[in-house]
Amino acid sequence: MVTLVPVAVGGHVMLGVEVKLPKTTLLTISNDKGYIMCGALDVGLLNERLADRGIIAGRAVGVRTLQQLLDAPLESVTFEAEKLGIVPGMSGTDALLKML
């Protein structure tokens, strides 16, 4: 099952997506510029094989809900996210606000 929900972040409405899969749930919160995602996100792939796309994204691990994704420290971020001042250890909320 796929669930789309509005997620308020610092007075801005972003799109939360939950994809229920056998034994796991994929989570992402996005705005027009970038996104944060659960541990399923392969930052290395985005930085290396898809570098020409300039994807702005961050990855948090061990999260099970959209709220946890907002609160958790990012474990890794893309090179393009770093250019915006988004760094590992930053909360998902802070990263999304830097993506505006």
UniProtKB/TrEMBL annotation:
It comes from the Bacteria. This is Uncharacterized protein YunC (DUF1805 family). InterPro entries: DUF1805, YunC_sf.
